[in-house]
């Protein structure tokens, strides 16, 4: 009897010890998981640098090209971790896509956009903000581009760590600005161009937010708040799908097909109109079939927007890959040209291997580090459902077209996040409006105290302030980092 009790106690002791080991093992895995991503990222950066060495061969400028390839790979990883969240966040937050599905679609579409429709050439002095004469010397130009590339990548990395979606293009602009000032002084800056870029900090999110809020208002008053919701959806959802298809067709024609053809705004709008009409005609019977067995309630309406939302997220990613990747790896292409030709050029060709580094870097960055920002944009700013997320995606495409028509510089990052804010603030306004109307018609209705009303805000103010602050300091922060980096490089190599 004593022996059996002793054995039982031994087994209990063994179980406790195993449980302790299991907890330690789980804790170790949890701590080491981020290190796996860092390790894979370092391996990719090293491989990119080695590939550049093999491709460019032994030449006097090989060292600079190898360093630039490493910095370009680092930049691409950070684009994947930060910028792509703006395209996929709303779809994930609305539960139209799983995180794994969003990452897979974004990785494929971003890479396809970069490799298929990425531009043939890129401006070496980003957006024309620096006078080329100030950095015409190939050596000084190389140092400036190295500084711009590294500082932009570091800033986007910091922003990702702070859970703040920022503009990759603005980071590169800031990097070029800082290095240009350090190399040639303040007089080399094209201040009117910089003023336009600064104006886009305000224009992009306001325009994106206003369009997203307007579309949501239309959906509420024309579909949600009518007696027969399904009949209203059969009428208006195909129209919205046609509008989305047309907007994205025009958006892709303007921003994503530079390599295929030079398309002006008029031709892009004509393409958009044709595609939109075709999509509307196809959507009418499709929506009718899908809604046949649906109940007359809001949950049914959400299902009708799920598939169009997934398609719009994929198209946003393709357009982003085609348009923004070239801007991010542009400094690398500029360095390759300067070291190979020994001179400066206002625009340079984008070598295929440079675009490959950008495309694969974005995919790796997205897979390894993207979920953090995707969750942030999709669910932590405001609560999204398929209808609200659809408004954000549609506003992104329409805003780019409107901005192109008006000749305004805009940021796709600011537009998408501004759309999320627009949807959230519209919901707040709408709820307040309903409460005021209820209190007027029913004076006995009890109003919540101010503290409770603030607590129930539908947009998280802490995230709003963090993101806006990050947008405002992006160009100055990247410029300061770049200027310091340039001065260090010149001191070491000059």
UniProtKB/TrEMBL annotation:
The chain crosses the membrane at residues 35-55, 61-80, 92-118, 138-160, 172-191, 197-219, 231-253, 265-283, 303-322, 350-369, 389-408, 414-430, 464-489. GO terms for biological process: phosphate ion transmembrane transport. One of its GO terms (molecular function) is phosphate transmembrane transporter activity. It is a multi-pass membrane protein. Keywords: Membrane, Phosphate transport, Transmembrane, Transmembrane helix, Transport. It comes from the Bacteria. GO terms for cellular component: membrane. Belongs to the inorganic phosphate transporter (PiT) (TC 2.A.20) family. This is Phosphate transporter.
């Amino acid at each position: 009897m004593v022996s059996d009790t002793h054995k039982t106690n031994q087994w209990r002791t063994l179980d406790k010890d195993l449980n302790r080991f299991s907890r330690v093992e789980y804790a170790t895995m949890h701590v080491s998981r981020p290190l796996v991503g860092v390790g894979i990222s370092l391996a990719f950066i090293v491989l990119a640098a080695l590939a550049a060495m093999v491709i460019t061969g032994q030449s006097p400028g090989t060292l600079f090209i190898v360093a630039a390839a490493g910095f370009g790979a680092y930049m691409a990883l950070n684009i994947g971790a930060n910028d792509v969240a703006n395209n996929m966040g709303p779809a994930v937050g609305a539960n139209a896509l799983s995180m794994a599905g969003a990452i897979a679609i974004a990785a494929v579409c971003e890479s396809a956009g970069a490799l298929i429709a990425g531009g043939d050439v890129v401006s070496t002095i980003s957006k024309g903000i620096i006078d080329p004469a100030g950095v015409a010397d190939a050596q000084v130009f190389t140092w400036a581009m190295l500084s711009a590339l590294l500082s932009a990548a570091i800033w986007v990395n910091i922003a990702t760590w702070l859970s703040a979606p920022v503009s990759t293009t603005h980071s590169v602009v800031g990097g070029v600005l800082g290095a240009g000032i350090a190399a040639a002084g303040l007089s080399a800056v094209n201040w009117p161009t910089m003023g336009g870029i600064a104006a886009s900090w305000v224009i992009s999110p306001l325009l994106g937010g206003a369009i997203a809020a307007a579309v949501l208002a239309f959906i509420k008053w024309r579909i949600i708040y009518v007696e027969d919701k399904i009949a209203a959806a059969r009428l208006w959802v195909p129209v919205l799908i046609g509008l989305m298809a047309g907007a994205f067709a025009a958006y892709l024609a303007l921003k994503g097909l530079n390599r295929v053809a030079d398309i002006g705004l008029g031709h892009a709008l004509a393409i958009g109109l044709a595609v939109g009409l075709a999509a509307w005609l196809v959507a009418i019977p499709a929506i009718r079939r899908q809604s046949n067995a649906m109940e007359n309630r809001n949950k049914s309406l959400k299902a009708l927007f799920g598939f169009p939302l997934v398609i719009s997220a994929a198209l946003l990613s393709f357009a982003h890959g085609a348009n923004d990747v070239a801007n991010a790896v542009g400094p690398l292409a500029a360095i390759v040209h300067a070291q190979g030709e020994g001179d400066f050029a206002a625009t340079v060709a984008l070598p295929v291997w440079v675009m490959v580094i950008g495309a694969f870097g974005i995919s790796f960055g997205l897979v390894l580090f993207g979920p953090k920002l995707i969750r942030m944009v999709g669910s932590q700013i405001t609560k999204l459902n398929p209808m609200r997320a659809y408004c954000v995606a549609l506003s992104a495409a329409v805003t780019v077209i409107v901005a192109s028509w008006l000749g305004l510089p805009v940021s796709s990052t600011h537009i998408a996040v501004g759309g999320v804010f627009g949807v959230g603030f519209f919901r707040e306004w709408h709820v307040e409006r309903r409460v005021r109307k209820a209190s007027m018609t029913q004076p006995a209705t009890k109003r919540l105290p101010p503290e409770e009303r603030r607590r129930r805000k539908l947009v998280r103010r802490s995230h709003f302030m963090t993101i806006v602050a990050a947008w405002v300091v992006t160009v100055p922060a990247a410029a300061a980092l770049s200027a310091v980096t340039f001065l260090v490089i010149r001191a070491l190599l000059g």
